[in-house]
Structure formats: structure tokens, C-alpha cells
Amino acid sequence: MTETVVLKLGGSVITDKSGACAIDHARLERIASDIAAREGLFVILIHGAGSCGHPEARRFRLDRGLDGENTAGIYRTHAAVCRLNDAVVDALRNEGIEALGVHPLGMALADDGRLVRCETAHIRLMLKHGVMPVLHGDVVMDLTRGASIVSGDQLVAHLAEAVQVSRVGLATDVPGVLCGGTVMPRIDRNAFFASGIAGSQATDVTGGMKGKVAELLALAEKGIESNIFHVSRIGAFLDLTDHGGTVVAGSR
Ligand code: IPE
Asked: Which atom of ligand 1 is nearest to the CA of 46?
């Protein structure tokens, strides 16, 4: 049976976070060839924003919603992350993958910063017809705040559940969830609170590693485990070999 996998590329692994929308094309080429080399997998690819979206979201204070002064931030933030999406799709297509950009702004709705609706029927159809959907963290309209930022990690959790995928992987610029400098091979809700990560400062508008683990723990409680590993280990994750990272698991 063909497996369906959700793979998220953190924004910091495909952009240089110090520049303004500085896309790492060489990294994207390597990732695309890693994915292209694996046959017989249905992949839903989701990427973050990195320097193509986070600076705009911050500048327009979209984390606080719309205030009558920052409406242009919707366009600016969306346009920035769409530029990155085009680059990801191009890199995959150059490797012969039938990739297609799918933008959450047009298919999802949030309430107070949380995704409440997200169409997935077309994602299933794309997979069925051999198309790889490539989604991204995005600005979306929000019932309470007017607009808000939905992270790629929120989308990972939503799609993994809605499409009932068999595996979830998040490629990051660190080897896994770190505690005292070493990778935690497994983390569940109890270990999360014991490790101190739960109380750490957020590093970007959507919460950095803390936000990521929180999303994935909620998913794990619904029975879907996920994996956080270094971007150089994407092949190992797809091949079901040891990726050397962290498994986010439900509490036993
Ligand atoms: C953020 O998505 C989306 C925008 C700011 C538009 P993510 O939160 O998934 O991005 P990264 O992975 O942290 O860069």
C-alpha cells in the first residue's frame, strides 16, 4: 500500500533568517532531489516562512490581528511567503515532481489564531492524481482578530488528522528537540513540561520549537506520532531508517 506522508520544512532551513526573503536555493535543490529519489510515497509538503513572511508579519503586527492600520500586512505577508512557495515548487518540478502550490489564505479560516476550517478534499484529489501539494504557513482571515498567522505546524497537525497520513516529519535546522544540548529521542506531554521547553521564550511570531512541539503533542494525543529531525536526515525519515531526531509521542 502506498503511504501518505506529511513533511514540513522549517522556514529557517530554506531561508536565511538574517536576510530579507533570502531563499536558500541550493538547500532547496538538495531537498527536492532527496524527495525525488524516493518512489511510492504520497507526500504532502508544507513549509514555513523564515525570512519570507515572518519579518512582514512582525512589521505589520499581525500577531495582534487587524487594527484598522495594518490591513496591507495581509497582502505583504502573503506575497512574501508565496515567493518562497514558488521557489519550493520550482525546485521540486526541476526534479520531475508534479508539485503544485496550495495557499492557505484561500482555503482556510482561523478563530483567535487557531485554524477552524481548512478544505482538504482537493488535497486528497491531488494526491490521487499524482500531484504533490505544497502548502505553507500563511496569513489567513480570522473570525475574532480579522486576520492571523497560521503556522505550518498548525497545518501539519490539521492535515495529518484530516487526511489520515501514516507518517509526519518536520525537518529543522537542529537535530531534534534539545534538552541541555542533547537530543531527546522521545518526548511526550510529561517530558515536555519536565524539560522546561514549555516555559521557554518564543523565537518568532508562531512560537519556535516550543510552538512546534505543542502542536505535535496535541496531534500525538489523537494517536498520530511525529518526528523532528535535522534537514540532512529527510532521506532517512522517508526511508524509515533512524533519523537521529525526536519522536513526539502520546502520553502512555
Ligand atoms: C509562519 O509559518 C507563516 C508566516 C509568518 C506567514 P511558520 O511558523 O510555519 O514558519 P517558520 O517555519 O517558523 O519559519
From this structure: 9
